[in-house]
User: What shape does this take?
Amino acid sequence: MSFFGVAQSFEIYNGDTINRQDYYNCKEGKWRVTGKLKPSTCYLKDQIAEEGNYIGNRKTGLWIEYFCNGNMRTKINFVDGRPNGHAIMFHENGKKNEEGDWNNGRYFDNYKVFDSTGTRFWEIDIKPWGRYQTLVNNNGRTFMQGIFKDKSSTELLTGVEYIYDEKNRIAKIKNFQDGVYVGDLPLKK
Assistant: This one.
């Protein structure tokens, strides 16, 4: 059921007021975005595409977005319209894809990436004071360490890449300077 007036518009869903817009067309309160608000997409008319809250036309708190198959696409916390806080992204099959914390629209601290089975295959420890990062493989072993092009990149500018053998022992340490592979470092005996 929808209501429109001079000052605002809103809908009633299961007894709750949702999708409210004030006199200035600013979104306020709880919102459920359905297929009817996303024409020319794969969503059915009454299927939920995303849901969360607005304050002053800006997303706030936990927002959940869904794939057309109904599985969750994202769970992201927002502050003043920007991702800020814990975030989880999912593969279309429902398994985790990425997980970490956002600050000012960027990942910081610990960031994990998962394959389509939900198995973690790398992890970045992003230091808040710079671009120095450590990437960890699925076995918990460091495989890259140094300064990267940016906080979400695996392009190593200065640092090392560890290559492991079939017994998970370090077989080679590749050295990078200014974005160029300059040779191998000696292995410690």
The radius of gyration is 22 Å. The mean pLDDT is 83. The chain has two domains: 1-114, 119-189. DSSP finds no helices and 16 strands in the chain.
